[in-house]
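Worked Example 4.2. Consider the chain below.
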Amino acid sequence: MLIGVKIKMIREAFDLTQEQLGKELHLTRQTISSWENGKSYPGITDILSISNKYNVSLDELMKEDIELIGHFEAIDHSLNKQKILYAIAYVANVLFLAVYILANYMYVLPIYKVTALIMGMIALFVLFSTVQQPVNLYTNKWALIAIIIVLISQ
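Applying the procedure from the previous section yields the following structure tokens:
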């Protein structure tokens, strides 16, 4: 049985409308409707909220829903790929910064400068084209420090 059908059964067992359930979960009626019709899936926090509020075990809600499990596995796989991509781009940017900082204190062949610049630009493009949540520079002090160093060293 799909999780949307189970959510509908829980909602009906507690004599709630989609609107009422949505208000209790701080969601819209359309969100509840899309879950019940199988158009989208609830997030894990929503599933936990339903489990806690209506005394339904997570096992009962999620068990045997192959599509839901596949959905969460796809999200997990996507996040793992993104973490690897970020790590590679981060290392490329660190190398780019290192070459340009060293160039201020010692002679660096122009080919290394150009290579570092290209690597840095590609890494920045990859980071900004795949980022799902923008980086808040005020809370990410290391990013802010790195940007300031690059600007000062030019």
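DSSP finds eight helices and no strands in the chain. The CA atoms of residues 92 and 102 lie 15 Å apart. Compare this with Example 4.1 before moving on.
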